[in-house]
Write a structure and sequence with these properties.
By secondary structure, the chain is an alpha/beta fold. It has 11 helices and 14 strands. It is about 40% helix and about 15% strand. It has a 7-stranded parallel beta sheet with strand order 3-2-1-4-5-6-11, sandwiched between helices. It has a 3-stranded mixed beta sheet with strand order 12-9-14. Bound molecules: nicotinamide-adenine-dinucleotide and uridine-diphosphate-N-acetylglucosamine.
Length: about 325
């Protein structure tokens, strides 16, 4: 069966909106289903502006089976981004995370099964690897969730694997993202965190635009070249293209976890330096204690994505910084 109409849960969010661009440009019909809990409809209006194509938007919650059923009828495949993603909040409100992410996904899979829509690309996370036993991280590394957010990702991966084992007609890709940063090069869409950003890049861009005084670097006593934490930052446009490749490769592999990263790690201070160079802005920072739960180093072995999907990240750290800055500069208060 050829795949034409894609049901994108959480498609108004950061990664979802960038993926919608790639889908529309590849001539898929796109239906976005989002409750706007952590996004604005404006993101999709801008996706339409960028692509000159239209999106069908349905405001709804993935825990609402009836609404899902109405919205999904006639779709061929699902890209499932919808979920809550703040690690700290998940520690404070675990039931909210289990309810939204796990129960929501369960409802979605039930409806997919009922409607015989058995193609799905799921947003998983490198957070599942916990503290690495070896680097670079391959997909066979043990998975251990270290917080409720990670537990929900693990639970959803397990649900999908069980579903596949029960019925091999399912075609499933479990994409484990490393650290998405950057923005579409138009500067029209990007990451729009509410409140104080938890993640490094949006914090840096908010310092650069004058919304925050300085960056706090969480620890400079890690076993890394400059003592600060090392991560595998990946441009969100590369990540979005990875979804398209995964969609097109569905069925060519078993229900499988696939890393989406660049394979290269950069430290906090390297990212700060790269951003300063790309933006011409200086980023004042202070060194603080380590953030509880943080690991020292994390980067992907991206070979499986290349082998199975024919995908690899192409955009440089400089491009990630240039594009993050363009988005922030033109949209100091987000959407
Ligand atoms: P985001 O918050 O920008 O997007 C998630 C979208 O899902 C939002 O638009 C939100 O309104 C929607 N949503 C949440 N709960 C919903 C529900 N119950 N029903 C309908 N819609 C709902 O986040 P993002 O960064 O674009 O992440 C997308 C996915 O990728 C998430 O599942 C996240 O856990 C996963 N992920 C993100 C990162 C990252 O660093 N951004 C890393 C690894 C994995
Ligand atoms: C965070 C999430 C993780 C998620 C990942 C990708 C936590 C504990 N983990 O991980 O689940 O998969 O994002 O979105 O939130 N840093 C600073 N100062 C800051 C912010 C961050 O020094 O203000 C440092 C961190 O210590 C880390 C690096 O910057 O070394 C990257 O941090 P961040 O962007 O939050 O990503 P992760 O910690 O990898």
């Amino acid at each position: 069966m050829s795949i034409k109409t894609i049901f994108v849960t959480g498609g108004a969010g950061y990664i979802g909106s960038h993926t919608c661009i790639e889908l529309l440009q590849a001539n898929y019909n796109v239906i976005v289903y989002d409750n706007l809990a952590n996004s604005k409809l404006e993101s999709l209006r801008r996706v339409e502006q960028i692509t000159g194509k239209s999106i069908t938007f349905i405001k709804g919650d993935i825990r609402d089976k009836d609404a899902l059923k109405n919205a999904m009828t006639g779709c061929d495949a699902v890209i499932h981004f919808a979920g809550l993603k703040a690690v700290g909040e998940s520690v404070e409100k675990p039931l909210l995370y289990y309810d939204n992410n796990v129960l929501g996904s369960l409802c979605l899979f039930h409806v997919m099964q009922e409607l015989l829509i058995k193609n799905i690309v799921f947003s998983s996370s490198a957070t599942m690897y916990g503290d690495p036993e070896f680097l670079p991280l391959t997909e066979v590394h043990r998975c251990e969730a270290t917080n409720p957010y990670g537990e929900t990702k693990l639970a959803i991966e397990m649900m999908l694997r069980a579903l596949y084992n029960s019925d091999k007609d399912w075609q499933i890709a479990l994409l484990r993202y490393f650290n998405p940063v950057g923005a579409h090069e138009s500067g029209l869409i990007g990451e729009d965190p509410s409140g104080i950003p938890n993640n490094l890049m949006p914090f840096i861009t908010q310092v650069a635009v004058g919304k925050r005084k300085q960056l706090a670097v969480f620890g400079n006593d890690y076993q890394t070249p400059d003592g600060t934490g090392v991560r595998d930052y990946i441009h969100v446009v590369d990540l979005a293209k990875g979804h398209l490749k995964a969609l097109e490769a569905l069925g060519r592999f078993e229900c499988d976890a696939i890393n989406l990263g660049t394979g290269k790690g950069y430290s906090v201070l390297e990212l700060v330096g790269a951003f300063e160079q790309a933006s011409g802005q200086s980023i004042p920072y202070i060194i603080q204690d380590r953030r509880p739960g943080d690991i020292s180093e994390c980067y992907a072995d991206p070979r499986k994505a290349k082998d199975l999907l024919g995908w690899e990240a192409e955009l440089s750290l400089n491009k990630m910084c240039v594009d993050s800055w363009r988005w922030q500069k033109h949209n100091p208060d987000g959407y």
